[in-house]
Write a structure and sequence with these properties.
redox-active center, five-stranded parallel sheet, iron, 8 helices, about 10% strand, iron-sulfur, Rossmann fold, alpha/beta, disulfide bond
Length: about 210
C-alpha cells in the first residue's frame, strides 16, 4: 500500500500556484485558535483565507463561546501577508449528537471521531462551493492525536461530492505542531485539555 505524503502534495500545489501567480480563496475549517495559529501563518503567504468556525461537537456551550471568541481575537491580532476573514457556522449541537448516536462509548480516535471529521469537512465543502471558494481544508491534521490519512480521505471524498478542490495537508509536518505551541504562548492563547466533545472531555478526566 502506498503511503501518501500529504505535506508533499501541499508543496506541489503551492509551487503550481506560485508559477501561475495566483492567490486563491481558501475556506479553512478551524477547530480552535491554537491549531489555526501555525496554519494561518503558513498558508496566508499563498492564499486569501476565510476561517470557517463550524464545530457543533464542542461541549459545553460556555466552552464553545470561549473558543470562538479566542479564534476571532487571534485573527484580529496576527499580522499576515494576505487578508484573513472569519465566518461562523451554526452551533448545531443536536446534529452532532444524532451523528454520535450508538458511538458514545467508542474509544477516542475511532469511528465516532471519523464521523465527526466528516460532519465538519462536508459542511466546509458545501459552504466553499456555495460561496465560490477555490479550495477548502481543515486545521485538524495539525494535532498528533488526529488521523491525517483519514482526514484527507474524507476531504477528497467531499471534493468529489461538492465539486470544490480539497487542499491536501498534514500540518503537523515541518514542525507545525511545535510552531503552534510557540505561537499559542506568544499570543497567550487558551489551550484546552480535551478535543471538544462531551465524550472526549469524559475520557480526558478518567
Amino acid at each position: 500500500m502506498n503511503v501518501i505524503n500529504y505535506q508533499k502534495e501541499l508543496d506541489k500545489t503551492i509551487v503550481s500556484l506560485q508559477k501561475e501567480g495566483r492567490v486563491p480563496k481558501l475556506l479553512l475549517h478551524s477547530c480552535c485558535a491554537p491549531c489555526s495559529s501555525y496554519v494561518l501563518e503558513y498558508l496566508s503567504e499563498y492564499f486569501e483565507i476565510t476561517v470557517f468556525y463550524y464545530n457543533p461537537n464542542i461541549y459545553p456551550e460556555s466552552e464553545y463561546t470561549k473558543r470562538i471568541l479566542e479564534q476571532q481575537e487571534l485573527i484580529s491580532r496576527m499580522n499576515l501577508k494576505h487578508p484573513v476573514s472569519f465566518l461562523a457556522g451554526n452551533y448545531e449541537k443536536d446534529r452532532f449528537y444524532r451523528m454520535a448516536e450508538g458511538l458514545e462509548d467508542v474509544k477516542e480516535g475511532g469511528a465516532r471521531c471519523f464521523k465527526c471529521y466528516a460532519l465538519r469537512l462536508r459542511e466546509t465543502a458545501q459552504m466553499a462551493k456555495k460561496a465560490g471558494y477555490d479550495y477548502f481544508t481543515t486545521t485538524l491534521s495539525i494535532s498528533p492525536m488526529k488521523n491525517a490519512a483519514k482526514l484527507n480521505e474524507i476531504g477528497l471524498a467531499a471534493q468529489k461530492e461538492f465539486g470544490v478542490k480539497y487542499l491536501q495537508s498534514d500540518f503537523k509536518k515541518k514542525n507545525g505542531y511545535k510552531r503552534s505551541i510557540e505561537l499559542s504562548k506568544e499570543y497567550g492563547l487558551y489551550r484546552q485539555d480535551y478535543c471538544g466533545c462531551e465524550f472526549s472531555q469524559r475520557s480526558s478526566t478518567q
